[in-house]
Amino acid sequence: MEIQEGCVISPGRVNLLGEHVDYNEGVVLPAAIDRSVKIQFTRRRDHLVHLSALDLDQQCSFSLFDLDRKVDSSGNTLPVWALYPAGVLWMLQQRGYPVYGFNASYRSDIPIGAGLSSSAAVEVGFGIVCQVLGGWQIDSLTLARICQAAEIEYAGVNCGLMDQFACASGVPDHLLMFDTRTYESRPIPLPQDTTLVIADSTIRRSLINSAYNDRRRDCDTAVKYYQTIYPRIHSLRDLSPAQFQAHAHHLPDVVRQHTSHVVGEIERVNRAIKYLDAGEAEPFGQLMFETHQSLRDLYEVSCRELDILVELAQSFDGCLGARLTGAGFGGCTINLVRKDRVDDFIEFIKTAYQRETGLQANIFRTHPSRGASLKSSSAYRTVIPAIPQVHAIDTRDLSKTFVTRQGFWRRQTKSTVAVDGISFHVEKGELFGLLGPNGAGKTTTVKMLSTLLLPTSGSISIFGRDILRDTNEIRKNIGFTFGGARGLYGRLSAVDNLRYFAELYAMPPDLTRKRIPELLEIVGLDGRGGDRVETFSSGMQQRLHLARALLHDPELIFLDEPTVGIDPVGARELRTTIKQLIGRGKTILLTTHYMAEADELCDRIAIIKKGHIIALDTPASLKRQISEDSVIEIKVESVNLPLVQNTLAKLGNRAVISYSENLFVKGIRITTPQSGAVIELLSPLLTSNIIQNLEVRNQTLEDVYISLIKGNTE
Amino acid sequence: MKRNLSLFIRQMDVQLRMRTLNLYSLLLWFIQPIVFSAVGMILSKAAGNATPDLVYTVIGGGIMGMWSGLVFTSTYDIRSDRREGTLELIVGSPTSLRKIESIRTFTNVAAGTISLVAAFLVAVLIYKFSLAQADILSAILSLLVILFGLWCMGVFLANLMVWSRLSTSIVEFIEMPVALLAGFMYPISILPTWMQEISSIFPIRWGLETLREAIQGTDLNEITLAKWGISIGISLIIYLLSRLLDRRVHDLIRVTGELSSI
Questions:
Q1: Identity of the residue in A452, A491, A501 whose CB atom sits nearest the CB atom of B17
Q2: pLDDT tens per residue across span A25-52
Q3: Residue ranges per structural domain of chain B
Q4: Given CB atoms, is B218 within the 8 Å cutoff of chain A?
Q5: How far is CA B238 from CA A47, A361, B155, B234, in A?
Q6: How far apart are CA A179 and CA A183, in angstroms?
Q7: DSSP strand E in A427-574: where?
Q8: DSSP per-residue letters across A561-615
Q9: Phi/psi at A176 (5° precision)
């Protein structure tokens, strides 16, 4: 089932051990926590993404086609907070995953900048949103890697993989052992009778990125040095403590110090895993204290407030381990506390920290939680208000009656109802088909929607604007073409035609100069712009019509029989162009007599007859509506029809036969749910005939159309 | 302002290339005045005049050519737009049809002055008509008053022609009566009184009178000023009337579906 809306919950993470080893291919021990980003989303039919960051009270809209440029819908640079979700969308596009427009509002209870990976939670959360809306799935590791790449390449933050992996892969009540080299992972239970407590120092450091990058560079320097001695070393993960010690004196002081932490931390994690597997909480906690010491003295990423928090925790009976978590320089400590001492611990740290620093720490217990996932949409509706959706087209009870008067002395009035109370809507980004026989009211409907005719009754709104009140505003936002060669100045060149219509749409000259060659290329008329339109073929004129309709970059385009009179190659090219337009987020209303064209292009189709809509659904559903039977079409030179009928009578009413013939060929058409049985029964009868063609196919849109139009008549 | 100027230039360019600068239109602008002038001279001679009245024949022929050209081109424009489907595109754009029609009519009127210039040249070069007595300033001002009157009438008629296909025929039908009533080729004073009264509603009539007076050397006087005032006043009334009709016409054509009817 295609999901159109929902709520994704994406947790933050805390790392218990293995700090600053993820970019050295070490093993880490993070856990997803029960603080999370909650994203409420609704699918859009266009190419836009509208984000509301409720905590920041900021909003931002951007086009999926502008992700490369990092600009919003108004052309302004994306705000920093939007780079994280936008980066994920961009990276998914780069990797070939289909990404669709959506509205999303989100809020988070993960403290920002506290080392609990609020940005990774946002990235992974939006990755899940894209998966859900796109109807595709990837494993959590792939998702994490995409999110990491997005943060590095799009947001410009150099980060390891641990944060995104923990947010994506968390397991309730478990830590994750994650090998950042092999990407192997396994959950390890949190020691029994212990609880994790996070203490937020409330200190935030702004230079964390540069310090982080410095340390990554130092690690690289060390690797390069040790590779000269141990060529098989690929990262600090490969360097044993003994090897490090043997040559450490050759390294610059700072590099040596930093490398010492990494090598020691990798070794500590190895020990920690053994303790955790054995359920030994105390020695594991001791390693946490050691890690903090190393981060403070060797890696130099702590700060006074964090040190105070750890020292206080160390002095508390019942706290088994404590250390700073995250990149450092501020943020939080993670504490492993005996369950029965948690409340006292929190109270103690709060009071003592305030006494020591004058600051109020934000201290809360947390539980290892599940990774990012889709929740039911209703769960958070009360928390996050739904975003109202505006349709591209909305018609209600739309009618049009033409009144003509004839005669000179005795005037006679004749009324013709062209459209009779139709209601439908077209969503943004949708390609909506309007099918029907000649005189059904298609063109009248299109002309009413495109402001060229006034409805006799009913209402039309285009992008939420009333067609009677906001006519001129609507005209700026729509483009239209009507089938045939009319609508161009034949004695002018293609470029002159486009220049003229650009003027009618008040396009700035610079934009016109830029846009015309682009459009001529899009419609395949590049190189012919200077030629008079009267020398163009029908197909070329039709494509020029399309270029004209697109000139002012309208959001909504009406195409009234755009392929009429065009040869098959030209028609196919035009259909390709139409698909590209939909890909670029345009909304299109198409009328056509070619059912295959409608089937190929349209998201939904309305069949209109005598001014009434007699069917409206997706092409697939329309086909299902009439029947799921197969159609067998056999063309033979001669046939004994009564014999065929008698033979198939065995199937009862499960085979409906129709017959047609001309001078050269006889045609039998059988509609049946049992095509195999029919062919088996007919085979002996047909062996003596020359079968010119035998085709078994599903119902086509044309079958549906004919059935509905004829059925409605009868 | 910049935007309007840009639209003005582009619309004039399209108008001239599509509708005006073709062989048929050029013949209309040149041949028609010659024919009218020739007929005028023949009639003048037939009436027993020793020398033809060049003001009423040659210049009158030029004005006649302008008027016919304006009516013909305007009706042709609308018919073509209907036939070619461009009328719908123009109406469906954010630029008002009135603006387009105003520029088109201006283009047609400006092109029509070719007739008048041709007629003047014929009068001066071939018939050796002397402009020595003429009050050139008054003549130029009178000409401008005539052009303004023609433009206002053109905008009004274009509006009418957009309204309905039938209007186009009506406009063609009034081409000759207006020419006769406005006294293009003879003094209004020869018309019966009731016709003179009707002719007073045409702004061109007053402009033509002052043009002839200026060419014949009548000094600028209060009567001239009054005639200019009347001509400009009537022209403005016609223009305002077309402004008032504009919205109604815009709605009506969208009710009747006349935009694309051929």
A1: A491
A2: 899 999 999 999 999 998 887 788 999 9
A3: 2-261
A4: no
A5: 50, 81, 9, 6
A6: 5
A7: 431-435, 457-462, 465-466, 478-482, 556-560
A8: STTTT--HHHHHHHHHHHHHHHHTT-EEEEE-S-HHHHHHH-SEEEEEETTEEEE
A9: -110, 120
Burial class (CB in 10 A: 0-12, 13-18, 19+), A376: exposed
Residues of chain A in contact with residue B255, where contact means CB-CB under 8 angstroms, are 453-454
Tens digit of each residue's pLDDT (9 = 90 or more) over B59-89:
777 788 788 777 877 777 777 788 888 888 8
- Strand A362-366 to A412-426 pairing: unpaired
pLDDT in tens, A398-421: 999 988 777 666 677 888 899 999
Count of C-beta atoms within a 10 Å radius of residue A375: 14
In 10 A of CB B137, how many CB atoms? 10
Q: Which amino acid is at B245?
A: L
What is the per-residue pLDDT across A644-655, written as a single tens digit (0 to 9) for each? 788 888 777 777
Helix, strand or coil, per DSSP, at residue B188: helix
Encoded tokens for A294: 């190393």
Q: Is B16 on the interface with A (CB under 8 A)?
A: no
Interface test with B, best of A452, A465, A478 (most B CBs within 10 A): A452
Residues of B in Cβ contact (< 8 Å) with A503: 6-7, 10-11, 95
CB atoms within 10 A of CB B174: 12
Q: Nearest CA of chain A to the CA of B85: how many Å?
A: 4
- pLDDT of amino acid A675: 77
State the pLDDT at residue A385.
Answer: 42
Q: Which two tokens stand for residue A232?
A: 């098989």
Q: Which residues of A touch B (CB under 8 A)?
A: 402-403, 444, 447, 450-454, 472, 475-476, 480, 482, 484, 486-492, 496, 499-501, 503-506, 509, 548
Backbone angles phi, psi at A482, to 5 degrees: -115, 140
The answer, for B251 touching chain A at a CB cutoff of 8 Å, is yes
What's the pTM? 0.58
- Which residues lie closer than 8 Å to A224 by C-beta, 6 or more apart? none
Helix ranges restricted to H, B47-164:
54, 60-84, 86-91, 97-121, 136-163
| The one-letter amino acid at A495 | V
Subunit contact A487:B257, Cβ cutoff 8 A: no
Is the interface score ipTM higher than 0.85? no
Among residues A257, A260, A160, the alpha carbon closest in space to that of A213 is found at: A160
C-beta of residue A148 within 8 angstroms of C-beta of residue A180: no
Q: pLDDT class for B161, splitting at 50, 70, 90?
A: confident
Cβ neighbours of residue B193 closer than 8 Å, sequence gap 6 or more:
none
